[in-house]
């Protein structure tokens, strides 16, 4: 299927690894020019080189920086000739007990996982509407649908973003101008972050990492972790011309792990 987005420009955040990288690769494969940003310059430049080799017909611009800062956002936006597609993404805050989190911990989580996406949306959607095309995909978390007790910082910040998007996406001046805003909620995907989290949990429990991974895998009907590439492919479809009637939705990709009907 031709997604109808060849030649457009995308800004993909936290794209040096994991799900963000999967999204950038999938968009570039569809002929989209990409500006990718992440804090680690070495990994980001390696990803840019990988995408250029796989999709030689597109422009790939790497902008090292922290998207959760005003300076990082300004640099990323300045590097993108126009933002037709915005993929919001940021590493989640650490797990823990809410009794141990002070005000600064909460503000840091809200800044990265709620306010930063809102700032980027604010900077781009009106221009998208003027051009009669725009796609915003926010990578949030399956924890928005089924909260995880040790991820309270993430549950709170990402749920705040979800509520904001629910209202904004339905504004007629955006929806009628072919600007869509949707959230992708990943479940358990095989990424460096998940591996690191599992290593910490294994060390605390005394079990091996592989034993803990096997236990988690057994609780997923698909009996496996998702891959960044298949996540990216779904993101690319949400950015397509064919997805213009889909907006304000929370789409859970979790291999069937969430047990609810709704």
UniProtKB/TrEMBL annotation:
It comes from the Bacteria. CDD domains: BKR_like_SDR_like (cd05344). InterPro entries: NAD(P)-bd_dom_sf, SDR, SDR_fam. It holds the Pfam family adh_short_C2. Belongs to the short-chain dehydrogenases/reductases (SDR) family. This is SDR family oxidoreductase.
